[in-house]
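RETRY 2/3 - previous attempt timed out on the joint model. Re-submitting the same 774-residue input unchanged.
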Amino acid sequence: MAAGPRVGVVGVTIRPSIPDDGHHSLEEHLHDAMKATLADAGLTTDDLEGIAVGANDQYDGRAITVMMASAPLGGVDRDILSTPSSGEHAFILGALRIASGQFRTQLVVAWSPIEASSIPEAQRLANDPLFHRRLPLDELAAAALQANALEHAEPGTGRVADGVLAAGRRNGARAFPKLVKADPPKGRPTRWPLREDTVPKPVTGIVALMLASEDFIRERGLDPVAWISGMGWATETAFLGDRDLAKAPALESAAKQAYGEAGVADAATAFDLAEVTDVTPYQALIALDALGLASRAQWRDKLPEFGPDGRLPVNLSGGVASLNPVFCTGLIRIAEVANQLRGRAGAHQKPGVKRGLAHAASGPAMQYQTVIILDAGRNAA
Amino acid sequence: MSGRVGIIGIGQSNFQPRRNDAAYPDLVREAVVIAMRDAGLEFDEIEAVVYSLSPDAMVGIGTAERLGVDAVGARNKRFLRINTGGATGISSVATAWTHIASGACDVVLTAGADKVGECGDSQTVLNKIWDPMYERSLPLGTINMLAMSAVRYAHKYGMTQEDMARVVVKNRRHASKNPHAHLRTETTIEEVLASRMISWPVKLFDCCPQSSGGCAMVLASERWIRQRGLEAVWITGLAHSSETYYLGDRMGRGYTADHADAHALKASFKKSYAMAGIKDPRKQVHAAELYAPFSNTEFHSIEAADLADLGASPAMIREGAFALGANAGAVVNPSGGVLCTNAIAVTAMVRVAEAALQVWGRAGERQIKGARVGIASGNGGDHQFFGTMVVEA
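RETRY 2/3 succeeded.
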């Protein structure tokens, strides 16, 4: 975004697991998250110039589900756009809208309810109706095919993946002790080689971020800020049969874009922490490789570096391995990094974080790949 | 932003009620190929794709943009989808503009397609846009939603069913000159009035068709366009604004916005005009492609675009205003508009495309002589989301 003004994250709300209390509607939860994000930024609704929403009709059980969300998010009389392709795409949209100079602030929101009678069935509707829909091909099955492809390409990956999963759960239990167990009981195989306990059950979640332009941030004296230094996004093709599922060329493309913008020459040494989307630990390993953080030959040896006390902590939040609000897991990774840079990550805060990397993936076997690089305010301003 | 953003390629299907010869991604590809040839580009030059698709249920595939990735040549490239209902097409063009104005990209493709006539029953799909607890069970559809607007508009401003029919006659005449339009047969006021009542006072001929087809546009930065010596028209103003979700908030006592008018559309046009430096649209605008899926809604759209005072447009159409060949003022929907073609995912993109073709001087038989300034709009949701754009030669 060389031409536009710099964009910073000035407010964050992460609700990674909202219990159904039987008394609050999704609209009320969204409104509450919007108000909390503005409060975190030190702003009011009057400061809201536009809204970028990531929302999925199939999970919400509505057509054009942004309609429902518009008023609770302050959309009436405002410019609100929706991208259904992923929650993280709303972040890209919001950032680009500010960088274009048309807006000074954007609220970015994604959510993921669990009211759908069957999330796997909703996911199967995305398959091509002529060839693939009759297959039991939901996103968990796609992730299992990807895991198999990786095991075939890199024999012995399963043992490394077990270690990645255990490390993620330990982080999750530290970050969200009331929600995550470090060592849940082993489940039965569900979609081989994935077990029932490999991917957490879907939960309801909401994530919101307030973005603002550099001039607005300075004019209002907003602090703390996580500045967007690099942004990349790309897609794979939809047909799994057309892809080598063990590889992630779209992620390599997204990383190249983001690293180029941020001036990252050596990803392995450029960041203080990272959040990667790990619906399965196999996906985490693919991401570490494509992001240039650990090549396949290094996976086993470098894992200690990615622990909470290692050189590059990965998923201090516990990642998707710990909490799985399906449609907003990618945007939560970005929000988690932003909060780390703003010193507001809570129990899992790492001190002194200056530059962070967020990786978001959505769709079957990581079809959509997004890379965001954020810098801490005082160091980059 | 640095420099303007230009439109350098446009592709449209010849819209039809059904396309049994083409699967959904094929229709997207059809429009993309035309737009790419129009721009004279190779796919390697496209840096990002903004995918235009409103409710997935219209094409019978969930998150159907995924199946369109290859059709738009987006593999390993920047890609995201926009959905603001009927406004999706113009919101997608706006998002493509944003990619370039932000400096993230120089060349962006936006594309989509729809198969509305093949979805079974579009009104059953569209009923699902309403809240399941309160308004979905009424049963609402987009036709009776805007029939209620017609009743209110008639009550406030004296619009008659003959006035509504005049809009249909005008737009069908325009569409007869547009090879891309779905309904191209001219009609008469008598035929419109005699057509089957759908939701009083909206009759069959007052309604848009259910169309299948695609649309695509290529946008680029002014610097990139100049470097390559390409021809372009320029997006000089754009905005969105929104109304409330619940229809009940737009009628009865204490309404927040009058359902007769298009409050948020007006607000959006005001912002677009300000950005483009348009101070007197009635004198400055030559071509207006306004999203009006029912004849009555063209009136409040004309007024929201400030091409007429509130309630004044029916009398102006009686006098021959807003038609091709009119002596003065903007021509409204020279393509035939949404009344003659409605492939929902791209309908609002077609509005931008047609306004661009007019100011480019490439509109064929429907060309407005000397058109230099065009406007376009898109309406989405339950008359909730409105996008507007100004394009100039």
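The first strand of chain A starts at residue 7 and ends at 15. Closing ticket.
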